[in-house]
Amino acid sequence: MNKLYKVLLFIIMLLTQNNMKAQQQESIFFEETTGRKDKLIYFKDDSPFNYLPLTIIKGKESGPVFTIVSGIHGYEYPPIMAVQELIKEINPDKLKGTLIIIPIANTASFYKRTPFINPVDGKNLNNAFPGSPSGTLTEQIASWITKNVISRSDVFLDIHGGDANEDLLPFVCYYNNKSNPGKTRAAIKLAEISGINHQVSYPYTLSNTEPAQYAFKQAVQDGKTALSIEAGKLGTSNPESVKLIKNAVYNMLGQMKMYSLESEYAYAGTILFFLNNQTYVKSDFKGLFYSKLKSGDEVKKGQEIGYITDEFGNEIQKINSTAEGIILYKTGTPPVNKGETLFCIGSR
What we know:
This protein has helices spanning 2-26, 77-89, 107-111, 137-149, 181-193, 215-221, 239-255; strands spanning 35-42, 51-58, 61-70, 96-102, 155-160, 166-168, 171-176, 198-203, 225-230, 273-275, 277-282, 287-290, 298-299, 304-309, 315-320, 325-331, 335-336, 341-347. It is an alpha/beta fold. A hairpin with a 5-residue loop joins β14 (304-309) and β15 (315-320).
């Protein structure tokens, strides 16, 4: 009996310690003091990248909770650099409401310079939502964001860019969730005021029980106003993309009356192009990909838009467009594998 008592006592102490750690990690959300707070959230993993950086900026006045996430793919640099600047620039005294900011969601991918996946467990964070608190590092991160960040958000903005191999046209996108038209209209309004002229709508057919996989799709599934920005390409960090992202964030905050716009970022209007249909052209072979086209180019249905060779330079597949429209993004480097997307073509 004494032995059983000790085992039960140990289990109770372990559960209590875990609960206290969870409460300590979440306490940053409940601090009422105006200003900026930075915190590292730790996970059950032995790697040196077992943490998530989190910043919360509370304004002087109460208001909406606006979440900004970057670095879900750590090789997409303009979103990360834009968020670094935003953290330093936002003045809490001018803010109405709260900003929750995850500046680098996938630190292992960022520091190891790994496109798409977390090198610790080989998983894609943007394919892991809603995650699992008892899963691998990537699954734990997804679970924590789902339970602690998305749940507290009024607006959830997930910022991406062209990864190491992606030549990408800047655009802002959202899901056309017809079961929650109010949230969809709110996302559309924020997209249109962003200052990014290419607007992409994705169909939403997800049931309440299906895994969302993507971060901002999880937010849509959870009943939030959610959208995403794509800016930057080929794993580079260029000032134009950084400024475009910052401008979009400031415009959205201004639209929500959360932050007064400085003249540099004030929305000046832009011609919008709505690309509500997407066609994906994929590779049938592994090999070397060639194309003279770039993101933003217009293509016709049936037009030859590239080709693939084997390792000896012999052509093994001719690539023809299966739709008419604008190239939203394409593979911008030679290596391709069977089944990979070579082009995403957007059309009205």
